[in-house]
Specification:
Elements: H1 22-36, E1 38-39, H2 41-48, H3 52-64, E2 68-70, E3 81-83, H4 96-117, H5 139-157, H6 187-191
Antiparallel strand pairs: 1-3, 2-3
Helix pairs in contact: 1-3, 1-4, 2-3
């Protein structure tokens, strides 16, 4: 990775912890590729506001994971990329299910990186607020809880596009919420080791 890969859109050196935003950069690149078809790192940087080095690095990572591929071109230094699978004509973009799987994979990748490198972060950042809970909700209540979380995060969402709005000590933090109903185990799953609680 070059020095340019380690700079933010404003050009300053990246602070510790900014690897947490990697899934956001890659998701933005995939979304842009779905919109325009093919693009180079330079074109992506102009559209998204990141450095060309950062875009180039993440485009190569997406290619390594089989999500994108080099598009045909006439030589030269420009290296255009495209999605490996054509976008469905009905939606004009990647399938919601496929994109969701990719987003979850990138979230998990960032989480594992955090766990393995947490001791390298500045002391004030060596903790996280990860938690989980089970609540009995109706479908309507589930929607209301999700909307409450979205409203709580709304005041901070525009800081991605407005670097000057960020406090001096702010760093990118992954905000991941997954609300889903817990399905009962099938008889087949219950027969498998660890498939159900045997303590009773």
């Amino acid at each position: 990775m070059t020095e340019e890969d380690l700079t933010t859109p404003s050009g300053r050196p990246a602070r510790a912890g900014e690897g947490l935003r990697e899934h956001e950069v890659r998701a933005a690149l995939l979304d842009l590729l779905a919109e325009v078809g093919t693009l180079t790192a330079t074109e992506a940087a102009a559209r998204l506001g990141y450095s060309s080095g950062l875009c180039s690095f993440h485009l190569r990572q997406l290619a390594r994971h089989g999500r994108i591929e080099e598009a045909p071109h006439n030589g030269g230094r420009a290296r255009p990329w495209r999605l490996c699978r054509p976008a469905p004509a009905a939606t004009g973009g990647p399938s919601a299910e496929g994109f969701g799987d990719l987003a979850r994979g990138l979230e998990d990748e960032s989480w594992q990186r955090w766990l393995s490198r947490r001791d390298q972060a500045p002391p004030e950042w060596r903790r996280d607020e990860a938690f989980s809970a089970v609540a009995y909700l109706t479908p309507e209540e589930l929607s209301r809880v999700a909307e409450t979380i979205r409203r709580a995060l709304a005041p901070y969402r525009d800081r991605e596009q407005r670097p000057l709005a960020r406090p001096a000590d702010a760093a990118p933090v992954a905000l991941i919420t997954r609300l889903f109903p817990l399905l009962p185990h099938t008889a087949k799953e219950a027969d498998q080791p660890g498939g159900a609680d045997d303590s009773a």
